[in-house]
Design goal:
This protein has 17 helices and twelve strands. By secondary structure, it is an alpha/beta fold.
Length: about 500
């Protein structure tokens, strides 16, 4: 027997502090430097990990440190694109929004792309993520939590139970707000809520500015309507918080081949996502759009109207709206509002006989007609998409419920591509197929005539799974001898 080579364990010294003795607590000591960007050809990747603070020098990532390392990466002459790889639950409000704007400023200063890769980008982490012109999420990423949270503690009861009495001396009514030795009052909570709301407005505006450049007001309301929800990658893609789902190696490879990969994807993200379309329908403006056609001239009044082929679309839309309006959920409420708008547009108020028609009233009627037309077409498109999705799911009964759930949040084209790429699972073996798999006996008078549609491998599998019982190779039945042999594949 050969002797085994002795196992050699190599000790690799680590940089920075590995442990802190109890007597050294509270004493300043040097922290290890955070890693610089890793260069992959024309692409540099900068990793951001853990909670976020404002200033460098703490045990966590800092906005100042991220900016310094990002600028160093941008300054590399061979780098054409910087990818910031985030895996962070968020952090401090102080300095966060300024850092997000500063990251965009660095990209403009060096005329190089800034792309976000999110393994997890939540709260303040998502605020920084929006600095990239494109947000790519890992398949298992979490994104969102766009909001502000503040904690107020009241330990007066605990102090009283311990026999401790604390008296606060302040120079203003609000100076003791948030002090744990001061009881929490309604005024205290209202003061904190005002601050939280003010920060939240800045946060919503930042996301709207970076993710939807031409729709800042509407998109800010949309972002607020997300209610600080956390989304898994496919849901984040549907909600407009991400532009693509890829792994980091895939993203690096595609950017190396094409530095402008996905560059313009985020311009229309909010406009095309299903959640954004729903918000846009609920907040649709009532004024006449600027690109509406001009009024018909006198010589055009007798021109033929629109082809009658569009009429079935509107009938379909009305039936779809009426059916959805029966439900008690948010969709039902939206459809009931749409039916009200249709009714108002169909029965306008008659003006007084002596008074001329007011231009404002005519404009409002025209605006209502345009709005109804737009809403009807959107409902037709939505009903068509839902029907296509239902047919797609029905065509693959072998898919697992988790896969079907993922298909429902993906864009229809992506869902079709995923279904086409997913191999069909083998169905269960029924009793008829199990009987065939045992093979037909070969009798002496009919030697060589036994035929089966199952392969030998399938028969062996059926035996192993207990779907069939093994038969004897030779069996005597009266004056007949039955010889059985395994069926070979092929002819």
């Amino acid at each position: 027997m050969a002797k085994r080579a002795p196992r050699v364990t190599y000790y690799r010294p680590q940089t920075g502090a590995l442990a802190v003795h109890a007597s050294a607590l509270g004493v300043a000591y040097a922290l290890p430097a955070l890693p610089d960007a890793v260069v992959h050809g024309p692409v540099a990747v900068l990793a951001v990990r853990g909670p976020l603070e404002h200033y460098a020098g703490t045990a966590f990532e800092s906005y100042d440190g991220i900016l310094a390392r990002a600028e160093a990466a941008f300054a590399m002459p061979t780098v054409r694109c910087l990818v910031i790889d985030y895996d962070t639950p968020g952090g401090a409000v102080s300095g966060c929004f300024e850092a997000a704007h500063a990251l965009r400023g660095l990209s403009a200063k060096y005329s190089k792309r800034l792309v976000t890769f999110a393994q997890n980008a939540l709260s303040a982490g998502y605020a920084l993520a929006t600095a990239g012109d494109t947000i790519v999420a890992a398949p298992s990423a979490l994104l969102g939590s766009i909001g502000i949270i503040e904690q107020v503690m009241d330990q007066t009861a605990a102090a009283a139970a311990a026999g401790i009495r604390v008296q606060l001396v302040t120079s203003g009514a609000r100076k003791a707000d948030g002090n744990p030795n001061s009881a929490i009052s309604t005024d205290t909570l209202e003061a904190y809520q005002r601050n939280v709301d003010a920060y939240a407005e800045q946060f919503f505006g930042l996301v709207a500015e970076h993710r939807a450049p031409n729709k800042s007001v509407t998109s800010a309301g949309y972002v607020a309507g997300l209610e600080a929800s956390v989304f898994v990658a496919p849901e984040a893609l549907s909600a407009g918080l991400a532009d693509a789902i890829l792994s980091l190696p895939e993203l690096i490879q595609r950017l190396s081949e094409d530095p402008e990969y996905l560059m313009a994807a985020n311009v229309s993200t909010f406009a095309t996502s299903p959640i954004a379309a729903k918000a846009a329908r609920a907040e649709a403006p009532t004024e006449k759009p600027a690109d509406s056609p001009p009024p018909a001239k006198d010589d055009e009044k007798d021109a033929p109207s629109e082809p009658a082929s569009e009429a079935p679309d509107y009938d379909k839309a009305l039936k779809a709206i009426a059916a959805l309006a029966e439900s008690d959920d948010e969709k039902g409420e939206m459809c009931r509002r749409m039916l009200g708008a249709l009714k108002a547009a169909a029965t306008p108020e008659e003006p007084a006989a002596a008074a001329p028609e007011e231009p404002a009233a005519a404009s409002a009627t025209a605006s209502s007609a345009v709005l109804v037309d737009t809403l009807a077409k959107q409902v037709v498109a939505r009903v068509t998409e839902l029907s296509a999705r239902a047919e797609l799911v029905a065509s693959r009964p072998d898919l697992a419920p988790a896969v079907i759930k993922a298909l429902n949040v993906l864009p229809l084209a992506d869902a079709r591509a995923l279904v086409d790429a997913t191999p069909k699972a083998l169905g269960p073996v029924d009793s008829a197929r199990a009987a065939i798999s045992t093979g037909a006996p070969i009798h002496g008078a009919q030697h060589g005539s036994g035929v089966t549609s199952y392969s030998a491998e399938a028969s062996q599998m059926d035996l192993a799974m207990g779907l069939s019982a093994p038969l004897p190779a030779i069996e005597h039945k009266g004056n007949t001898t039955v010889f059985r042999c395994p069926v070979r594949g092929g002819k």
